[in-house]
Amino acid sequence: MTEMRSNREAVMRGQGLAVRYGRRTILSGVDIDVRAGDFWFLLGPNGQGKTTLLRCLLRLVRPSAGTLWVNPAIGGWSGIGFVPQRCDLNPTLPTTVREFVLLGLVGVHCRSAERADRLAWALDRVGLGGQERADYWSLSGGQRQRALVARALVRKPKVLVLDEPTNGLDVTTEDSLLTFIADLNAREQLTVLFVTHDLAVAARHGSHFALFHDGTATTGPVDQVLRPETLQRTYGIPIDIMRDVTGTCVVQLGSVRSGNETAVQ
C-alpha cells in the first residue's frame, strides 16, 4: 500500500508548518504529505487548528515558519473545489440549481458550451441530473449539500476541500453524502481533504488523517494515526476504534474489546 502510494503524484506537501495570528501561535511543527487520490480527514477538538491548516494549504494564510509546496499541475484556484459548512445565499433571492452551481465557475474562463457541459457533468455526479431549472430553495437539506458539492465540482478540480459540510444534517443524509464523496474519491481518483468531528465516519472512509492536539497535528495513514495512544492524546480520554462483524466502525470509550470486534486497519 505504501509503495503504491509513493508512485502517485504529490499534490501538496508541508514540512514544519507553523501559523501565527499576531503573537498567538495556532499551529507549529506540522508535516503533511498529500498525494493524488488520498482521502484525508482533519479531526480534533474545536480551536485546535483544523481550519487554520486548511487555509494554509489553500494558501489563504501564509505560514510563519516551515515550507509549503503545492504542485503547479493543480492549476491554482481553478484546480481546487471548496465546499463550506453552509450556504450564505440570501433565501429571499430566487435561484435555480443551474444559477447556484454555475457560481462555482467564478474566475474560471470557459465558453458557453463548456459551461453547459461542466454543469451537466457536475449535477450528474451528485445525483441531481435534470434538475437544472429546479428552485434551489425547494431542495431538501441533503440535496442542497449535494448542490454545494456540485458547485465545487463544476470547476473539475484536482482537489476537493470540505469544511464540516455535514453539520446540521440528519444521520441518513450525512451517511448518504459521505458515501457519495467516498465514491467520487474512488471512482474519479479525486484528492479529498475533509474537516469533521465525526470520528466513526472518518474511520470508515478515510485513508489518511490529521489529528490536532496541543497546537500541532499527528498526520499520516490510517494505521499509523488512528491508534489508541494518539486518540487519547488528541481527545484527552481513552478511545479505541473497532469494526464490528458487519464492518461498521464503532468508537469505544476505553479499551475493552468484545470478541466480535477487530481493530481498524
Number of separate helices? 9
**SSE series:** HEEEHEEHHHEHEHEEHHEEE
CATH architecture type of the largest domain: 3-Layer(aba) Sandwich
CATH names the topology of the largest domain as Rossmann fold
How large a portion of the residues is in β-strands, by DSSP E? 25-35%
Low-pLDDT runs: 258-262
Overall outline: globular
Task: Characterize the biggest β-sheet.
Answer: 6 strands, mixed
Task: Count structural domains.
Answer: 2
Please identify the top-level CATH class of the largest domain. Alpha Beta
Helix proportion: 25-40%
Number of DSSP strand runs: 12
Average residue pLDDT? 86
Question: Going across the major beta sheet, what is the strand order?
Answer: 5-6-7-3-8-9
Radius of gyration: 19 Å
| The CATH homologous superfamily of the largest domain | P-loop containing nucleotide triphosphate hydrolases
N-to-C CA distance:
12 Å
Write out key terms for the chains shown.
globular; alpha/beta; six-stranded mixed sheet; Rossmann fold; 12 strands; 31% helix; 265 residues; 9 helices; three-stranded antiparallel sheet; 2 domains
What does this entry show, briefly?
The protein is α/β, with parallel strands linked by helices and 265 residues long.
Architecture overview:
The chain contains 9 helices and 12 strands. It has helices spanning 2-6, 50-57, 97-102, 112-125, 141-153, 171-188, 199-205, 222-225, 228-235; strands spanning 10-21, 24-35, 39-43, 65-70, 80-83, 159-163, 191-195, 208-213, 216-221, 239-243, 249-253, 262-263. Strands 5-6-7-3-8-9 form a 6-stranded mixed β-sheet, sandwiched between helices. A 3-stranded antiparallel β-sheet has the order 2-1-4, covered by helices on one side. The longest helix is centred in the C-terminal third of the chain and has 18 residues, at 171-188. It is globular and about 50 Å long. Mean pLDDT is 86; it is low at 258-262.
